[in-house]
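ok so I'm stuck.
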Amino acid sequence: MMGIEELFQQEAYLLTIEVRLYWFVAVLYLSGAVLGVFYLVTLNRGAGRALTSLLWFTAVVHTLLIVFRAVEGQRPPFQTLYETLSWFAWSATVTYLYVQSRWKEVHLPGLVVSVISAGACLFALFTRSPEIVPIPPALQSPWYEWHVVVAFASYAVFVVSFSVEVVALLYGNKNSLRSGAFGFPEPNFHRYSYRLVLFGFPLLTFAIFSGAAWANDAWGRYWSWDPKETWSLITWTVYAIYLHTKTIPRWQGRVASVINLLGFVCMVMTFIGVNWLSKLLHIPSMHTYAM
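replied:
not stuck anymore, here's the structure
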């Protein structure tokens, strides 16, 4: 039978392998960002295809990392902020690749996705502990997995919509020839962003409702105006306004784009920013396990 010391050594060895694999994934995302910039500057379609291929390879390696973490921890790999940052980057990349596979010669949004995913991974590696900790009582609810998976699915869709919206603002309208070089007919930019938010909005809605059910299981009340709960409602409201602006002709262009970008900022605040603000301003939060 394995002794305590040998068990600790084995766990430390597995954690070392996992961290090194995480760094490799982060470097791959950074490489994708560099390749995306090269594509942006040169308009070389080969570079665009190479970017997408690199993201496919990165997604495969990142999937192995997540499976490794799940087996290592013997629980879902999205409990701590260290883990959820990885899950966020992975889900955003996989969602983008699925959407990209339905387009022809559209690769530029992959640059934005690469930058966001690289940033999430590096933030986790530089600022968070990779230690595997037990599931706290607050997470021990049948709503836990549903809430987290659906919430990050909505986040992933919003990341892709944001990426397309950035491309729209940079290369739409006066740059229609340049946007065509990236495979996007100019009028389709905003349409793709809108359809993505239209898909992600019900997911976010379910995430909020399932989070309320989870809160009732954990703390005995559905809503307590906790900072993270409040920001999730703000994010939901901003995206609801964005969807509404698409029904008003004079707001369908630049105004809708700005609101979509604002929705992404609110989403990042809900995910990460509110943790920092709670610590900085000493605001009590029941979501301290995610900080």
